[in-house]
Amino acid sequence: MNKNSMEEVPEKKEKYIRPSWDEYFLSLLEPLGSRATCDRGRSGSVIVSPGHTIIATGYVGSPPGQPHCDEVGHLLRTVTYEDGTSRQHCVRTLHAEENAILQCAKDGIRLDGATIYCKMVPCWNCAMRICRVGIKRVVAQKRYHADGQSRELFNNAGVELVVIDDTHEQYKNQ
C-alpha cells in the first residue's frame, strides 16, 4: 500500500445522537445560573433567535452597584395569594429572564419571535415582560409554584409554553 493512500476503516460504535435545540439550550442554564448571586434560585436563562442563535443570557442578580443576597442576605417579602396561601419572595435581585431581556434593551436588540429558555416557568412580572417584547416561545425545565397567572397570560398572548418536567421547582424559603 502506498504511504499516501488513505483507507477508510469502518468503526463499530453506537451512532451519536445530537441533542435537540431545546435540549441544547436547556443544558446551558445550569452554568449560567452558577453566576447568580441569590442562593434561593441560582437560575439562568437564554434568549434565542428563530434561527437558533443565542441573543442574550441572564442570571439572578442585583442591579449594578447594589448589594447581593450572597453578601448581605435576602430582602424577603411575603405575598398572600387569593387562595390564602402565602409565599416568600426575595426582591433584592432581578430574575434571570428579566436580566436577559434588559440586556437586549440596553444593547438595542429586538426580540420578536424569539424563544426564552428558563429554569422554571417565569413569574407573572417576567411573563408580562416576555409578552411585551415579542418573545413567542417559552421553554421551562420545571413549573414555578405560582405560575397560574403566567400560564394564563402566555395563553392569552399567544406565547407557546413548553414545560419539560411538570413538577414544581423547589428552593430555599419558598
Would you summarize the structure shown here?
By secondary structure, the chain is α/β, with parallel strands linked by helices. The protein contains 6 helices and 7 strands, in the order H-H-E-E-H-E-E-H-E-H-E-H-E.
Structure overview:
The protein has 174 residues and is of the alpha/beta class. The chain has helices at residues 21-26, 29-33, 69-72, 96-107, 124-133, 148-157; strands spanning 44-48, 54-59, 76-80, 86-90, 115-120, 137-142, 160-163. The strands form two sheets. Strands 2-1-5-6-7 form a five-stranded mixed β-sheet. The chain has a two-stranded antiparallel sheet with strand order 3-4. The longest helix has 12 residues, at 96-107. It is globular.
Jot down its keywords:
five-stranded mixed β-sheet; 6 helices; about 170 residues; about 20% strand; about 25% helix; alpha/beta; globular; two-stranded antiparallel ribbon
* Relative helix content: 25-40%
Q: What percent of residues are in strands?
A: 15-25%
User: How many helices?
Assistant: 6
Write down the Rg.
20 Å
Average of per-residue pLDDT values: 91
Distance between the termini: 70 Å
Structural class: alpha/beta
Extended strand count: 7
Silhouette? globular
Summarize the main sheet.
5 strands, mixed
Strand order across the largest sheet: 2-1-5-6-7
SSE order: HHEEHEEHEHEHE
Spans where pLDDT lies below 50 across 5 or more residues: none
List the helices and strands and how they pair.
Layout: H1 21-26, H2 29-33, E1 44-48, E2 54-59, H3 69-72, E3 76-80, E4 86-90, H4 96-107, E5 115-120, H5 124-133, E6 137-142, H6 148-157, E7 160-163
Parallel strand pairs: 5-6, 6-7
Antiparallel strand pairs: 1-2, 1-5, 3-4
